[in-house]
Design a protein that fits this description.
The chain is built from 18 helices and 9 strands. The N and C termini lie far apart (68 Å). By secondary structure, the chain is mostly helical. The mean pLDDT is 89. A 3-stranded antiparallel beta sheet has the order 1-2-5, with no helix packed on it. Strands 3-4 form a two-stranded antiparallel sheet. A hairpin with a 2-residue loop joins strand 1 and strand 2.
């Protein structure tokens, strides 16, 4: 067969595959929003900065937890630099102060709204640790209020560290491919009058922690509010749905959001931070709207079922350790003490499909939210230096079996592996 004929045959074989690949890529590119997200607006629209607008912007920025994410511990507020660990490296939050060179001082209101809605800035696509898919739900007037308020904050010339990511993720061009595979903008925004859903799915971006992750850190729809381990920080966020929250009344859940404490348990770890930095600012009406919405959410397809009571395994090592180290606070039957120590029956630490929270609390302890006008917090002491790995595994297995309905079979090796967990 001549060379020309070989090339001709190869062309007929390769060309259809190439055309099919181009067609698939075109469809995926269109489904992530087409070219619109990459067209930065160039306008000089003036945004109102009256007292009422600024007060609303302050409130909304609190609900969005902007300060916590864009501030390092002890650092200048909103100057960026907070590290977010991912499976592919570390992303650092940006400076959003009014500094013109390092912050957003020379951004227009429309450019700010574009970045919030599309996750694309002058530098290109943003990494999805920034919850732009949720901020896309925020109404125009609310984005303008946040923008106006941020421009009243002190400017900082602080320049956050460069992201430290593995290739190809270290190139922002690779994010276009990620968006083609995993990002799908909504066809229509949530009605702001549906207040609970608007805050939960929008500024509150609750699903960023409380959903099951898919491939490459994505958040597939079937995992929405299914619960999951929070990337990079070693905590498990439980499902948010009517089953998980059935033990709360609407009022109890609203109070928990604002105080981090309830008769059913207290907020620890990242949830305690969210309550302190963000949710405690909720108005009573907004907290109640969020609570009512969450208690109507149907369980997600990927949600792991919660077990039923599995017995107390009398005479086991776990029973002995519990009686010695835990019963004084949590009660002989795990009933806890109202206003002081949370009950174990049905608690997230006991019932979650992931034992991370239970192990972490026993190892390193925890402190619930301490608010000036809130109840006195009672901390959980660490047992990492009082109990050995075998004893910790035994007591966690016991409490998860008895009060969480989980067939827990942790070993000393599991506990030792957890001792490298992030404690921040």
């Amino acid at each position: 067969m001549s060379l020309r004929r070989v090339l001709f045959v190869l062309a007929w074989l390769v060309l259809p595959c190439a055309l099919a690949a181009i067609a698939i890529a075109a469809v995926l590119f269109a489904r992530q929003g087409g070219v619109e997200p990459y067209r930065m607006p160039h306008t000089d629209r003036v945004v109102a900065a009256d007292a009422a607008t600024l007060a609303r912007g302050d409130y909304l920025a609190r609900i969005g937890n902007c300060r916590a994410c864009h501030t390092t511990r002890g650092g200048t507020p909103f100057a960026g630099g907070r590290a977010f660990a991912t499976g592919i490296g570390t992303v650092y939050s940006t400076n959003i102060t009014p500094d013109r060179e390092h912050g957003i001082g020379d951004w227009s209101a429309d450019e700010f709204a574009h970045v919030m809605r599309h996750g694309v800035s002058r530098r290109g696509a943003l990494y999805p640790v920034f919850p732009y898919a949720h901020f896309a739900e925020v109404a125009d007037a609310d984005l303008d209020a946040i923008y106006a308020w941020l421009r009243t904050q002190p400017a900082s010339a602080s320049e956050p560290p460069s992201n430290r990511l593995e290739p190809p993720a270290d190139s922002r061009r690779a994010l276009v491919g990620w968006r083609m595979l995993h990002y799908r903008p909504r066809d229509a925004r949530i009605d702001p009058n549906d207040r609970g859903r608007y805050l939960v799915e929008g500024l509150g971006h609750c699903a960023m922690c409380h959903s099951a992750r898919g491939e490459r850190g994505s958040l597939p729809p079937e995992g929405h509010f299914a619960g999951g381990r929070i990337p990079g920080i070693g905590w498990y966020a439980p499902p948010l749905d009517r089953v998980q929250l059935a033990r709360y009344s609407d009022g109890e859940l609203a109070d928990y959001l604002r105080t981090g404490t309830s008769a059913h348990g207290s907020a620890y770890g990242p949830m305690a931070e969210v309550v302190y930095a963000s949710l405690r600012a909720l108005t009573p009406d907004d907290a109640l709207a969020i609570a009512r919405h969450l208690k109507q959410v149907e369980p997600a397809p990927l949600r792991a079922p919660v077990g039923t009571e599995a017995g107390n395994d009398p005479g086991s090592k776990g029973v002995q350790v519990y009686a010695h180290a835990c019963a004084d606070c949590h009660g002989k039957d795990g009933e806890g003490k109202p206003g002081a120590y949370p009950p174990l029956q049905g608690s997230v630490a006991a019932s979650a499909p992931d034992a991370t929270n239970a192990l972490r609390l026993v190892l390193y302890g925890g402190m619930p939210v301490a608010l000036d006008d809130g109840p006195r917090p009672h901390s959980m002491p660490p047992f990492v230096q009082q109990l050995d790995a075998d004893e910790i595994a035994a007591v966690v297995n016991y409490l998860r079996r008895r009060w969480g309905g989980r067939d827990s079979a942790l070993t000393a090796q599991d506990v030792e592996a957890m001792q490298g967990i992030v404690v921040d």
